[in-house]
Amino acid sequence: MSSSSSRYAAQVGGDNEEDNQELSKFYKPLEITSSDALQSEIHRIGPNLTSLDTNWKVRVECIQQIGHILRGNILTKNTTLIQQFIDDLLMGYRDAICKQIEELRSGVIKEIC
Questions:
Q1: Which CA distances in Å does 30 have to 36, 45, 47, 79, 104?
Q2: What is the rounded CA–CA span in Å between residue 41 and residue 72?
């Protein structure tokens, strides 16, 4: 895992108990145990984020799914999976995720923020 991936994992995983409790209210851990399982999630999430025309509830669920994955074991259990997650989803769909966040008037932002 690259040093930037390690730093990212430490920041998102966090050791702050108060922050972890707050995150647990919204994001239930999703255990990803294989590259195939992760690829399946990426193929489900990514395409739904590429357009603002997709139903906003679906886009919200997809962004929340990213949170569920991050709250699961992916950041601590398998360096290959975290690298795949960062490369294939976060970097691969970076522009689409940013587009969703930039659409400040959308139901997506109202729902996730």
A1: 14, 14, 20, 16, 27
A2: 13
The pTM score is 0.70
Distance CA 81, CA 94 (A): 18
* Beta-carbon-side half-sphere exposure of residue 56 (alpha carbons within 13 Å): 12
- Give 92-104 pLDDT, tens digit per residue: 999 988 888 777 5
**Three-state secondary structure of the chain:** CCHHHHHHHHHHHCCCHHHHHHHHHHCCCCCCCCHHHHHHHHHHHHHHHCCCCCCHHHHHHHHHHHHHHHHCCHHHHCHHHHHHHHHHHHHCCHHHHHHHHHCCCCHHHHHHC
